[in-house]
Design a protein that fits this description.
Blueprint lengths: L7 E6 L3 E7 L19 H19 L4 E13 L8 E12 L2 E10 L2 E14 L38
Antiparallel strand pairs: 1-2, 2-4, 3-6, 4-5, 5-6
Length: 164
């Protein structure tokens, strides 16, 4: 099973920046156990949402020629909680983009309140490599069935993209 930790993009500037939304809902099973009586979005799932935002930004920069894989999170700081009813806004800024991989800096905010910030590093696997068929596709940050969420948001010019 593949989990998506972003609901939609609200801004997307190719090769530069992306903003996505994650609505935190009490309907999400994991919130009932984390923490009992005080449900909060787990930090690991916020990292995954930040990675999906940044990984799609990086993948789109290379026209999805590569499979983007989360390699490491050299720095992450959690500043506050995200609770049911909150809307997390993930903002990823592309720092480095090479055929071997890339990196982003990402923030997670609820309104003006900083919830988390991180540096995330990705590696690329060439999608034409025959060895790739042996790797479980669920491990990739981006899969082609996620492409539809890129139609939401703003183009680099600031204009709404044309409906597809």
């Amino acid at each position: 099973m593949r989990w998506y930790w972003i609901d939609k993009f609200i801004e997307f500037e190719s090769g530069k920046r992306a903003k996505s939304v994650k609505n935190v809902s009490l309907a999400e099973e994991h919130l009932h156990d984390h923490f009992p009586g005080f449900p909060v979005m787990p930090g690991s799932l916020m990292i995954e949402g930040m990675a999906q935002t940044g990984g799609i930004l990086l993948g789109e920069h290379f026209k999805f020629e590569y499979n983007v894989i989360l390699a490491k999170v050299p720095k992450v700081t959690f500043h506050s909680w995200a609770c049911p009813g909150d809307q997390l806004i993930y903002t990823a800024d592309l720092q480095d983009a090479k055929p071997e991989g890339g990196s982003v800096t990402v923030t997670a905010k609820v309104g003006d309140r900083l919830v988390a910030d991180a540096e995330i590093v990705f590696v690329h696997l060439n999608s034409s490599d025959p060895q790739l068929s042996r790797i479980d596709q669920k491990n990739f940050v981006f899969r082609m069935n996620l492409l539809d969420i890129l139609t939401v948001g703003k183009a680099g010019s600031g204009e709404q993209p044309a409906a597809s």
